[in-house]
Specification:
CATH class of the largest domain: Alpha Beta
CATH superfamily of the largest domain: Fumarylacetoacetase-like, C-terminal domain
Strand content: 35-45%
Distance between the termini: 39 Å
CATH topology of the largest domain: Fumarylacetoacetate hydrolase, domain 2
Number of helices: 6
Oligomer: single chain
Order of helices and strands: EEEHHEEEHEEEEEEEHEHEEHEEE
Helix content: 10-25%
Structural class: mainly beta
């Protein structure tokens, strides 16, 4: 299944099930509420009402109850380019490196991201596969991890690199409003197959800047969930961004940061394309 969230006139949002060019409405206030239902009850919330996809605007498919969990340096080539750009020796992590993006950073697919030139001059892009948790869980083993996944979506970890350097950690530079677009939909595991074998691309104004496969992740999706849930409860609707491959702007020669009017596209196999434009003033 492919699930999304759409906007009603007046600004309210509702979850729906994508069926070709139509949306079957779901009787739930949010997709997070639907995800939290026992799996056997979810289908009973699918209504007979259909809406044309082209007649509605989309919101972020899921908005978690807390920050978005993220994994840093999870592709070898990205770790190499980051170390090279910073002039430091490469040291690979032995466990996933976690940080978070504030929930207020979440943005909708097709939204224009309003960013301030007074706050940062170095806005960067990071295309990522994101995992949506489907059940409350803790101390999940790698073997158990597939059973707690509701689905997968695309995410763009837009980052203010100068703030990241200035603050000496990742949270501030990655949590500005509008810097975490998610979507366009959440795709359930039976349509994804192996999440560790998906093609992933990023395009800036139609020009490909990142292209890799999730097979190149240092830590698999199951390993990430096992590590994050160790001693810590995960909740239905939690979102975990699994890291970005090489090709980001700050590591290029010369660096390539986002500029006013840019169109960003994150494309992930079997999920689709997340598009957002940028307004910097």
């Amino acid at each position: 299944m492919k699930l999304l969230t759409y906007r009603l006139p007046g600004g309210a949002t509702r979850p729906g099930l994508l069926e070709g060019a139509a949306i079957r409405t779901i009787a739930a206030a949010t997709l997070r509420e639907y995800i939290a239902l026992p799996p056997r009850e979810r289908e009973s919330r699918h209504t007979g009402e259909l809406l044309a996809l082209g007649e509605v605007a989309l919101d972020a498919p899921v908005r978690p109850a807390r920050n978005v969990f993220c994994v840093g340096r999870n592709y070898l080539e990205h770790a190499k380019e980051g170390a090279r750009a910073a002039g430091r020796e490469l040291k690979l992590p032995t466990v996933p490196t976690f940080f978070t993006k504030a929930s207020t950073a979440i943005a909708a697919p097709d939204a224009t991201l309003d960013l301030s030139a007074a706050i940062s001059r170095e806005y960067d892009f990071e295309a990522e596969l994101a995992v949506v948790i489907g059940a409350q869980c803790k101390d999940v083993t790698e073997a158990e991890a597939p059973g707690v996944i509701f689905g997968y979506t695309a995410l763009n970890d837009v980052t203010a690199r100068d703030l990241q350097r200035e603050h000496g950690q990742w949270f501030k530079g990655k949590s500005l409003d509008g810097t975490c677009p998610i979507g366009p939909c959440v795709v359930t595991p039976e349509e994804i197959g192996n999440p560790d074998a998906l093609e992933l691309r990023f395009r800036r104004n139609g020009v490909e800047k990142q292209h890799s496969n999730t097979a190149n992740m240092i830590f698999s999706v199951a390993r990430i969930i096992a590590a994050l849930s160790k001693g810590m409860t995960l909740l239905p609707g939690d979102v975990i961004a699994t890291g970005t491959p090489e090709g980001v702007g700050f590591a290029r020669t010369p660096p390539e940061f986002l500029t006013d009017g840019d169109l960003m596209e994150v494309e992930i196999e079997r999920i689709g394309t997340l598009r957002n434009s940028i307004r910097i003033a």
